[in-house]
Every structure is written in C-alpha cells, then in structure tokens.
Automatic annotation (TrEMBL):
Protein name, UniProt field: Uncharacterized protein
UniProt entry keywords in alphabetical sequence: Membrane, Transmembrane, Transmembrane helix
Species of provenance: Methylopila jiangsuensis
Residue spans crossing the bilayer: 12-33, 89-107
Highest taxon listed in the record's lineage: Bacteria
Keyword flag Membrane: yes
Length: 133
C-alpha cells in the first residue's frame, strides 16, 4: 500500500500576518518587560568621590581632553566613570531558564510527533500508520 505524498497544512495569508504580528509583539514585550518592571540596571554600583579630579578618576591627559570635548568636567564625569554593573547571576534562575527551554522543546516535539512521523514515513517508505496519542 502506497501512501500519498505528505502535504503540510496550508496557512492563509491572514494567519501568516497574525503569526508575524504575534511574534513581533512577543519580542517587544520580552525586550521591554525588564524596563517596565524596573529590573534593568538594578545591579549598578556607583563609586562617589567628594572632590573628583581627572587623576583620581583614573583618566590620563588624553582621556581628560576627550571628556572635556564632550562637555564634561571631573564632577559630571565622575558619576559615569564610577558606575559599575554587577554581573552576578543566580544558579537557580539559570536552571529555571534551562528547564523552560527544554520543556518547550519537549512540548513542541510531542505536538509535532504525528507530522514528523508522516514525513519520515513518506521519505523512508514506512507504510505503518502514524501512532495516535
């Protein structure tokens, strides 16, 4: 018994546009959510000096000249130069992220199982019907 060639489900133009807009919305939300929740920049430490000079800020003459060309004096530049980001991370958050990614992959494989089996059956001549779950 020969199987007909696999025909993937067709998606309408409206469906494609909705999918594209949904993906765009998810990207925008993903990028702006940390900003909206005030999570970005939370790990910044500032080293404040009472009377900063270019030398106390670790700037040589060439660096100081560039700062001055940009309109900064040592007092204004001290806040920028003294800002340090904290790059520490949580092992728990890393494990949760890995779990979410692996979970998503497993769910997508389960949902796509029948289509994968149809394609494999077409390509490799397996006449068995796909498993139903």
């Amino acid at each position: 018994m020969s199987r007909p060639p696999y025909e993937p489900p067709a998606q309408s133009l409206t469906g494609q546009i909705v999918d594209a807009l949904l993906v765009l919305a998810m990207v925008v939300v993903t990028l702006y959510l940390p900003l909206l929740l005030k999570l970005s920049g939370a790990g910044v430490t500032k080293a404040v000096q009472a009377a900063p000079t270019w030398e106390s800020l670790g700037q040589n003459a060439v660096m100081a000249a560039q700062w001055e060309k940009l309109g900064f004096d040592p007092a204004k530049a001290a806040e920028i130069i003294g800002s340090r980001f904290d790059y520490s991370f949580s092992w728990g958050a890393l494990a949760l992220t890995a779990l979410v990614i692996v979970g998503y992959f497993v769910v997508m494989l389960r949902w796509s199982d029948r289509e994968y089996r149809d394609v494999i059956a077409e390509r490799f001549g397996d006449d068995r019907p796909p498993r139903r779950r």
